[in-house]
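Class prep. Write one:
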Amino acid sequence: MSAIRAPLIALVAIGLVAGFLSGLFGVGGGIIVIPALLLLGYDQRRAAGTSVAAILPTSIVGSIGYAVVGHIDWLAGIALAVGVVAGAQLGSLLLARLPQTALSWSFLTFLLFSAATLWLSLPSRDDSITVTGWTFFALVGAGVVAGALSGVLGVGGGIIVVPVLMFFFNASDLIAKGTSLAMMIPGSISATLGNLRRTSVDLRGGLCIGIAACAASPAGILTATAITPLLSNIAFSVLLAAIIVPLAVRIRRRR
């Protein structure tokens, strides 16, 4: 697999946008990073691996920001993290074995699903997660799914975990976002270790994007706390639509 030497300024610009969106929506930024890396000449596999590596520093900074204002459910985050670590290894294995076309269509389908789940429930800022024995195991299961998606698609898993926490576990949008970012830390480490063994990651690109994203993440968190849950859902839906349409056109033209 040939190495990609993307321009530093392009990687930094991608990181700044991804970092702001990470703080704003509680996602890893992969929905921005992967399409941008594809435009820079990465194939789907290496773009996904590089994206999940860039998520690590972003999720650390984002988690600190949400923790400072008390918007992380640590018990739920631990349950999710247990599942994420196992799921990420499965995802990195699939990333190395699935065809490029299957990865592209899987990513597109995943974005469509995420956009739909946003409107299944509109949370209140007073909502919280009640963790019982059964809930803990359900969160572990959700973490396994998120970790697998993180490894195979290069996303942090937040674009499925955030809607799931709000709809199934009664979390407020801010707690869902903060807990999602905390969950991504072990998931990113696990998936990146797997991708390194299979040479499915560009560490230079991931490091550049991740460091730049850290600088923009706090601004996204401040914006998230300032807007209403409804406005947040609308903004996230617009973002997904802006990515889904050109990506679908690109995949069809490549075929």
